[in-house]
Fold this protein.
Amino acid sequence: MAGFYKWKKMAHDGFIAHGKLGFLLKKGSKGPSHGAAHEITEEEAAAYDLPFPTEEHLAAVHVFPELVPTPPDDETGRHQPVGGEANRALWEVFEKWTKPVLLAFSDGDWVLGHCYKLWQDKCPGVAKVKGLTLEGTSAISARRAAASSWWPPSST
């Protein structure tokens, strides 16, 4: 979970500043779904900043990582117990889940890219479907590539 804690720290410490969200996403976006250059364009990066015309509009970007339940040994020193009980209850369901589960993770997603292992270890349904590891991609391109590689289903 080191990547998650790095993201949480960046958001808390103000590294994600007005006009910088697109820059950060451009730095972290890579892969074949981003055209010949394998990265998002300057125009696409700028589009990520559009919903945040002022620093005040970034409040949710800074707060969201703090809302994710974390254990007492949270590396940032800002443990978030709220939601932990519900999270544990959901894992009790997934630990017994035998219906097929399709996992699609990116090997370049530094925040959650290694969480597939957690799902493989805890959820029996994961073994029923071959998951997707999107190589040479980031979280953003993982969403694009996963959607285009298995949806819509083939008619043949």
